[in-house]
Amino acid sequence: MKIMISVGEASGDLHGASVATALKLLQPDVQLVGMGGQAMRDAGVDIIYDIADLGVIGFVEVVKNLRRLFKLRDSLSDYMEQEQPDVLVIIDYPGFNVRLAKVAQQKGIPVVSYISPSAWAWGKGRAKELAQIVERVAAIFPFEADVYREAGAKVTFVGHPLLDIVKPAMERDEALRHFNARSDQYHILLMPGSRQQEITSLLPDMLAAGEKIVEQVPNCQFFLPVASTISREMLQNIIDRYKIPVTVTVGNNYDLMNICDLAVASSGTATLETSLMKVPTVIVYRLATLTYVLGKMLVKIPNIGLPNIIAGRRIMPELLQSEVTPDNIARQSIALLTDKNIRDQAMADLIEVRAKLGETGAVNRVAQVIMEVAKNGHV
User: Fold this and answer.
1) What is the per-residue pLDDT for 379?
2) pLDDT tens profile 26-80
3) Burial (CB count <10 Å: 0-12, 13-18, 19+), residue 182
4) pLDDT exceeding 90 applies to what percent of the chain?
5) 264-267: which pairs have CB atoms within 8 A and are 24 or more residues apart?
6) Does residue 95 contact residue 62 with C-beta atoms inside 8 Å?
């Protein structure tokens, strides 16, 4: 049996590697091929195209690189024509992968979509398009499953893979020692994002908010986890402008979350991670004005934070664009730290979000779906 997996960026490579590992456990002699990176290669996938230079492509870059992307699609099309995999698994990277799925469909190769296009945010047209192409959608959110079912897709709700990943490795006391965190202080997590542009846009407001927080809540320590791709010197230059104690950390993020009382985080997967670690979070988000205006016209949902979308209501504060100010961040943060009623409600809401994401074992369920489709074809 031959299974082809297609991803386009680093996060997809990690998901692809997890799926590959699960598939190997189900059927050790399965042949895995695809477009991916080092994580998938380490998991036993024969990489026919390395994505090392694809993850940086944004909207403008996509336009500039259309010819290259079309050439890549044609190359993978030729591969599918020659090798006839039993199933194509597309993971995220929708602009490219949906087009590749159309090619597979035309060749009679069934397709499984995992980490599917965000039809719940961008409108039902996306769901209907994918429903006509793929054999099965492996949905990670319950509301995602509903949208795709309504569009006519065959859907299996597998749950979210983060449920298997987001857990501390250390006991809390050990983590306190590891991060030099004092047990008699509030610990505040600052997560401006993993890209330099996000950090330069959001971190100064977070740090200025920190100065305002310590005026009312003096016993605070601040922690800033940093990706290995970010310059420590650049970070330190920003931090040094503000008069608050900030510890920059690398790695053990879930152990760090486990000792934190509050997070201020850029909208994205990080807010779902803090949610699963039961850390009340102030969500902040700032885009280029034109991008934001266009997004407001296209996005069909009232909230942008994943925990709020999952809950179906605003359970975490969201500060967008001009609302991202030190005063606003500080006000929301202080309330979550010191107002018992607000904090208790936030903790109850986070437990609800965790429950709505289903059970652990998402990747194993995805692998079972893929094997079923691969064995039965169009079922």
Assistant:
1) 42
2) 999 999 999 998 899 999 999 998 887 664 444 444 555 666 777 888 889 999 9
3) exposed
4) 66
5) 264/188, 264/189, 264/190, 264/191, 264/206, 264/209, 264/329, 264/333, 265/189, 265/190, 265/191, 265/192, 266/191, 266/192, 266/193, 266/198, 266/202, 267/304, 267/305, 267/306, 267/318
6) yes
Residue 350 pLDDT: 96
Q: Which position has the token pair 């100064």?
A: 204
The first and second tokens of residue 164, run together, are 């298997």
First to last CA, the chain: 17
Alpha-carbon torsion (153, 157, 163, 165), positive or negative:
negative
Crossing angle for the helix pair 94-106 and 66-83, to the nearest 10 degrees? 40
CA dist., res. 205 & res. 187, Å (int): 18
Quote the CA–CA distance of 159 and 181 in Å, as a whole number.
34
Q: What is the 3-state secondary structure (H, E, C) of 103-170?
A: HHHHCCCCEEEECCCCHHHHCHHHHHHHHCCCCEEEECCHHHHHHHHHCCCCEEECCCCHHHHCCCCC
Q: List, for residues 175-184, the tens digit of each pLDDT value.
A: 999 999 999 9
Token readout for 250 is: 């690398």
Amino acid at 315: I
Under DSSP, the state recorded for 285 is E
Max CA distance (Å), the chain: 67
pLDDT < 50: residue spans in the chain: 55-61, 297, 378-379
Kindly calculate the radius of gyration of the chain based on its CA atoms and give it in whole angstroms: 22
Comparing CA positions, the residue from 266, 264, 262 lying closest to residue 328 is 264
What would the DSSP string read from start to end of 192-241? Answer: --SSHHHHHHHHHHHHHHHHHHHHH--SEEEEEE--TTS-HHHHHHHHTT
- C-alpha span between 150 and 338 (Å, rounded): 43
- Interhelix angle 340-356/269-276, nearest 10 degrees: 100
